[in-house]
Amino acid sequence: MHVGLIGLGKMGLPMRERLRSKGIQVSGFDRNPVSSDAGSLRDLAARLTVPRIVWVMVPSGSATSAVITDLAEVLSEGDLVIEGGNSRYTDDRKHAEQLASRGIRYLDCGVSGGVWGRETGYGLMVGGEEADVIEAMPVFDALRPDGAREDGFVHAGAVGAGHYAKMVHNGIEYGLMQAYAEGYELLESQDIIEDTGGILRAWQSGTVIRSWLLELAVRAVEEDPGLSRIEGFVEDSGEGRWTVEEALAAEVPAPVISAAVFARFTSRQEESPAMKLVAALRGQFGGHAVRQVSGPEPAGKAAQTEAEQAIGETGAPE
Q1: For residue range 42-56, what is the model confidence (pLDDT) as tens digits?
Q2: Closest CA to 3 of 65, 110, 79
Q3: Which member of 83, 166, 231, 239 is catalytic?
Q4: Which residues of the chain fall below pLDDT 70?
Q5: Active-site position among 173, 231, 308, 318
Q6: Catalytic residue at 173?
Q7: Which site from 127, 162, 278, 301 is most exposed, i.e. has the minimal number of CB atoms within 10 Å?
Q8: pTM to 2 decimals?
Q9: What Cα–Cα distance (Å) separates residue 195 from each residue in 99, 104, 201, 219, 266?
Q10: Phi, psi of 230 (to 5 degrees)
Q11: Is residue 215 annotated as a catalytic residue, yes or no?
């Protein structure tokens, strides 16, 4: 099988490597010519066997919309687009309709696993037609974790269901990270506590709060004791907000997730040990840039078209 992959950033590049390691032929396109296999989206389409499968892994919002619009011009009837970024599920319906007018099929896929997915595999949540999911299953099987398919992959429902599931996943993630962060701050506040990092490490085995996030918290504190090199400023990708909005619309109580979202706003007003850990965790699992005490990282370079300019910082989790 030969697939196209648009966006070779923090998520897309290791996804290409994992697919190739599992025997899937991949042609990738990125604005960075060092990473890109194709010179343009049209060149990418020309490299693939019809009917084509093209995976889009670019930032949600206008970037994804621009790529979908360009793909509608270069793909053919019967081709299949899989949108794997963190798009809002309502955008999926618009993208699916836009491509369907050209006879192009569409799946949305929520992807979890962060920068570690190359080695451990990615949790996948897919929305769309059953026949299209079956056709793309070799790709999903290559990307998901080893073991039983149902332990790392789900066909969640119709178009939009995959990204809706990923949105809720990220809302839960907000709450879990905030709980760990508040516990960390309590430990740091007490003079009788002499080894905060050691306590976090001791919680990793045998306790009911052990998790991968806790392992990453241990790693973050060991790499930067006291988190002195990180500002307590935490961005939010939007999915936490969307989760709260959906909870309000459905009249489903979500006080923990809501509080976690608002806590991130607090981080933008004052220094906080808890927010330092949340920032460090986002850097650990997602490769997100963190604000160093010396200042923010420089912005990236401009590129050619709106769609191609957007293809770079791609598909970051949370």
Answers
A1: 999 999 999 999 999
A2: 79
A3: 166
A4: 269-271, 293-318
A5: 173
A6: yes
A7: 301
A8: 0.84
A9: 56, 57, 10, 14, 27
A10: -115, 135
A11: no
